[in-house]
Amino acid sequence: AxxxxxxxxxxxxxxxxxxxxxKNPVLVALDGVTDPHNLGAIARSVECSGAQxxxxxxxxxxxxTPVAVKTSAGALEHLPIAKVGNLVQTIEILKEAGFWIAxxxxxAETSYDANVYxxxxxIITGSEGEGMRxxxxxxxxxxxxxxxxxxxxxxxxxxATAVILFEIARxxxxxxx
Length: 177
Fold this sequence. Notes:
The mean pLDDT is 93. Helix 2 packs parallel to helix 7. The chain is built from seven helices and eight strands. It is an alpha/beta fold.
């Protein structure tokens, strides 16, 4: 039988589930991430960091393939995932529900380790080469950067997402949240 190992839910269901499990939930949304390996690795970090779920666009996004599932080490089978047709409209729904939207961008002013995670958060990770689309970026409440010391100018999308997710977990643990 050919069945998708991952079932998706409506964005409003994801929001409801997220708030049932945390006062300040964390969700990750992907914007143009097309590599199934990155999708799987990000899902693994979302699940391992204790975040509440993922938001995947229906178009211009990596499909949930066997490669993504294998790379996720089973995380995609345990995470609530909402697949959405329009990420910008979804961001507006998330804002109405009380989420703060943080996009990742190398040139951002706010460092990923700033003390800004004391509220419901959505972390948006853009594509491997181009980052977030301008329309998505425009709807973010803040942009986060990870300062780099080496000669390479950027991190892989899955690595950058993991760094931010585990910083959120670290801060919340240290602040008793």
